[in-house]
Give the backbone structure.
Amino acid sequence: MKDCTQGNQPTSRTSLFASVKARRLSTVLCFPILFSILSIPARAQTASATAPPVSASLLAIPPRSWVVDTAARELEALHNKSSFLRYRMHLVNAKGDQVRDVIESRDGSVARLILRDGKPLTEEQDKAERQRLNDMLKDPNAFAKHVKDSESGKKVADQLIRLMPDAMIYTYVPGQPQTGKHPGMTEVVIDYEPNPKFHPPTTTAEALTGLRGRAWIDAKTKETVRMEGTVFRGVNFGWGMLAHIYPGGRLVLEQADAGNGRWIFTHFMERIAVRALMVKTLNIQADIDASEFRPVAAMSYQDAIHQLLNTPLPTH
């Protein structure tokens, strides 16, 4: 699977949790994908004075119904082909601190490295990045492989999202603590834990048995606003021969409306320990932030690359 530091990155929730985060093992994919719906609190949130109180009528709705509606919204976003964005993605992981200029195209997303470790690229680094993008223009097969990887991740995400309503037991959080980050928005706050009657139909779905969590859902749009999560017990994939996810892992996701009703992630944090193929333990630590969203016209990936190459690099 591609490392998310590679330049050719997908960028919506589709990509972030179905491909951008699929950088170690395909079996690890399920954790970031899952958190595109719900997650667990690592600390309490403080109610915002500007947030409307959660009405009794909202809390009269069965908690599972919110999850059903939210899952439907996530599936729409997962398969979105109606709008396209350009934005910056800031990634900090074991490979360093990198900022990329990202454009979504009709064919998939492309990205150009523009800052490394908080500094402008050197002439040599920029030359290598330009060469990589130009090589992609000359070899459509390389981009096609990237798209295939993304579609594979999207398929896994689709499967897990559809399982979520039945995989967990849902309850309202007492007091409905709001995140306070969206003035005027009412958030419905729901906790969940694994449903003991759920039997994972696939190896990847085993991930759902090791999570319990919390979600903040916009009551109006049914979109997920924030998730915080912990892997509360170890999870084996393929009886542990493919991978083992250790307990104690944490994930945080935040999303927002980037304009015209297009919701997208703005922050993702991952701290997970994975034993791969019974041999090596990987301590995955990554922080990803997305910002400066701008709508763009539908275009081919070639046109997107040309736009990236024709954009002056930041000087600081």
Q: What stands out?
A: Residues 172 and 190 are 5 Å apart (CA to CA). The chain has one domain: 13-309. The longest helix spans residues 140-167. DSSP finds seven helices and 13 strands in the chain.
